[in-house]
Amino acid sequence: PLRIEAHRVDELRAALNLQRDKEIPLVVLEQAYGAHRVTEDIAERGATVVLTDVLPFSLAAPGDKRNAYAKFDPTSLPHQLNTAGIPFAIAGGTARMSAMLPMMAAAAIGNGLPEAAALRAITLTPAEILGVAKETGSLTRNKLADVIVTSGPLFASDSRMLLVLSKGRTEYEAK
Questions:
Q1: Sheet (strand 169-173) strand order
Q2: What is the pLDDT of residues 125-163, one digit of tens each?
Q3: Which of these, 98, 4, 73, 87, lies nearest to 39 by C-alpha position?
Q4: How far is it, in rounded angstroms, from Cα 50 to Cα 33?
């Protein structure tokens, strides 16, 4: 797949036109903050979307590029993409932000995204986009996986991480 970082509507349309004109079978639109305005076009072209920083604006830093879309809540975009049948991943965008994935998914759930779709958006869909879904991305026999055990539902604000298993070892255990 060709990965294209495209934020604004004009950039997204240009990427989709490039896909059509050059007959590129799969395009991944990254950081597609303006996708809410071109959802039908994205679905029609069969593109995939990677959303980063799916957080309410109240958590965004001043000057954050998402503030350009202040009239649109980015936490509602995953629901819109899911409804349109567009494959999408929720990603941190940086290693530091990867710890925020459950919070980003929870924010999207709060705006109508089903829990199962939120879990897929932070597990299997990213693995599919990266071409490693045969090896990782879901809890399936003979796949690599990190497993976390929480005190309640994964996306509940009061859930605590109790245990992390990685490579067959306990990496973290709550005391």
A1: 146-150, 161-166, 169-173
A2: 999 999 999 999 999 988 998 899 999 999 998 999 999
A3: 87
A4: 10
Number of Cβ within a 10 Å radius of residue 165 = 15
pTM flag (> 0.70) = yes
Tokens of 102: 């459950």
Host H or E run for residue 43: helix 39-45
Whole-number Å distance between alpha carbons of 38 and 9: 7
Residue with tokens 């986009």: 129
- Cβ of 63: how many Cβ atoms within 10 Å? 6
Q: Dihedral sign, CA of 155, 160, 163, 167?
A: positive
For the chain, report the end-to-end CA distance as a whole number of angstroms: 44
> CA–CA separation, 101 vs 109, rounded Å?
12
Could you tell me how far CA 60 lies from the centroid of its own chain?
A: 17
